[in-house]
Amino acid sequence: MALEANYNAQDIENKWYSYWMENNYFHSEVDEREPYTIVIPPPNVTGVLHMGHMLNNTIQDVLIRRARLNGLNACWVPGTDHASIATEAKVVAKLKEQGIDKNDLTRDEFLQHAWEWKNEYGGIILEQLKKLGCSCDWERTKFTMDPDLSESVIKVFVDLYNKGKIYRGFRMVNWDPEAKTTLSDEEVNHVEKEGKLYYINYKIEGSNDTLTIATTRPETIFGDTAICINPTDERFTHLKGKKAIVPICNREIPIIEDEYVDVEFGTGCLKVTPAHDVNDKVLGDKHQLEVIDIFNEDASLNSFGLHYQGKDRFVARKEVVLELEEIGALLKTEKYLNKVGTSERTKAVIEPRLSDQWFLNMDELVQPALDAVLKTKEIKLFPKKIENTYRHWLENIRDWNISRQLWWGQQIPAYYFGDGKEDFVVAETKEEALKLAVEKSGNTNLNAEDLRQDNDALDTWFSSWLWPISVFDGIRNPDNTEINYYYPTNDLVTGPDIIFFWVARMIFAGYQFREQKPFNNVYFTGIVRDDQGRKMSKQLGNSPDALKLIEDYSADAVRSGMMLLSSGAGNDLLFDETKLQQGKAFIKKIVNAYRLVSGWEIDDTIAQPESSKIALEWYESKFQSAFAEMEDHFSKYRLSDSLMTVYKLIMDDFCSWLLEMVKPAYQQPIDKNTFDAIINIFENNLKVLHPFMPFITEEIWHQIADRTKEEALIVSRYPSVKSINETILSEFEFASEVISGVRTIRKEKNIAHKEAVTFSVINNEKASTTFDSVIIKLGNISELNYITEALEGALTFRVKSNEYFVPISGTIDVEEEIIKLSEELKYTEGFLKSVQGKLKNERFVNNAPVKVIDIERKKEADALAKIETLKSSLASLK
Fold it and tell me: Helix %, strand %, coil % for the chain, to 5?
């Protein structure tokens, strides 16, 4: 079937994706070839395709398709992340719609609902990636809660616990009151918000005196257990050893002294609430203060909040302020700009909370990861500037809080057998736990029913940090064939926002469990923003529907458009739909080029014209030069530059120049040698374009010839590397300027292209005559003469110092041409005078940058050459 100019992209995309899948081209097995491995950053199982996914996965697919064309054993492992917080929230919301409260369910009952939700909705984003053309090895699709991956997570937890790296501690944690779980530091965003600073008077016991504290959270006064002053602050010497009375609850608290207090901040008096502030907890421990937790898990006040019990913290804040005002305890309020911790997932304001949690000690994990990136350079980050961010985070890392108060996730393998703080054991199975519990307790009457497994689940990232290892079963079976072949992986493509959540932690895991890096290179994409520079989000409503873009423009156009928008690793990109239109126009150009070539009649009896022979020789070197440039860009992860190189090669050099140079005359046949060469060139063009635009390239590849399964473009090989004839490339650049000069004269003087003209040249440059046959063809020149003196009665133009003459056609109004050239000469002479005036100005020459001076000298030289040409043209007309 012939390729239509307005082909149906959706039909072609569906056809070839099905063909690739049916023939198992995406699948990889261990063999004798060199492997090339990518593991997908597993999107949340709750996710749908958005612009960030489009960019990230296009880049990965470009890399994996290029690897196949290079003859490597390409393996791209897809999968999804169970996303504990987001998924549990989705399931709870769905249950609520059905009139079911999570608290009324057992854990097993809830998990049954969660798995049903996952099975119904969890594969949406992976199916959407297929629409983009992603050539993942779908047979290897993994989920972070697959039985083998969960077993790996539990195995790692037990191993780290037994090595003393995991411990249980009562610590101040980041509490998400909406998700009702703790968060790690990396899951908290600190957002600058305008709030208020409240100045509250506390009475001094046994006197009418008061002291004033300043706080942003007046509702926490119910948890106050001390007032702290700086011992060097002479303003409060009279308060030492006394007690203060907390307003509203009228509880007596001690006034303590500590140099921690900043005498310059607020009033110099600090209320100490150890249960609800990290620094207050340190002070509380130091001075052995009482700890009063005033919040429930949803951040409503508990019984310590007296008549505010059950009210949300922010509601309570407003009412507490009113009451303080009524009793005369509120001195004043001020506007205050403050950084507020918010949940990365739910956007809820974080509440510091004391809680028993599980932590991973990071001390020994950090150094190998630092060395790998900064010292040995085993792992390269693109862009390099991100190394500073990486260094800063690792050098200031705190122990990782790995427990979450959720049911969806791997349940922590700790089993309790008594009421004491240490009455627990850690084991991979309940059977193993029972043996350890009997041994630890000495109670031989213990049975499995006496054991209570820890109710918390592990942080989602505690499973995904094993991803490059666990997808190849490298934790459970550390010496299996696949992990030894595919690991370490080659490239990781990810967003800069998860460098700490995931990238650094995978590096920790790689050296901890394999004593190897997990990947060679990390390419950090930029963030896709709208035309106002805003990050795309559902809340702002500024993110286009990714699938609708594919439907409107085609997957190839979207892929190429996104790549053209991306200026390199780490750089944000402003989304511009015109780039997708550019991609669509590029497809149309390629389609039309193929329709042109396929429509030529072939005659194997005619000789190859000299112009075609030279043109093909030139393009072979041009292709090789572009191919080398493309590969150089790839080696530096400048993928958009690589695409632009291919784009220019096909749009300009192939379509605009080569096809014109070899195209037979109207209704005339083409010789077989030229036609065969053009087809071979077309195929090579398709190969280098295929990673970026897989569908249209595969379609035309099969239009060119009937191919077997083994000959599909996706599994073909890149063109072989050949030597580049730099001389012919240089000669063509010169010849193309001559051709452009002829075409300009034809356009300006309304000389039709079908009207043949004679052409003369004074070859001052001693330019090669290699492309004369091409110049004659594309300029429709009846005769090309080399002369030694200026030709009178001709129009002229220059290329460098060569002067070209086109005799005047009878259709030209000589008088009008003289007037036009005279005006142009006058303007150019004036321009030259202004430039020379600058160059004669000593102050300008001495102070201007060298580049600026060089530009002015170039302007002078160009103006002098143009004046000479204009004078010559005028002389020939008079």
Answer: 50, 20, 35
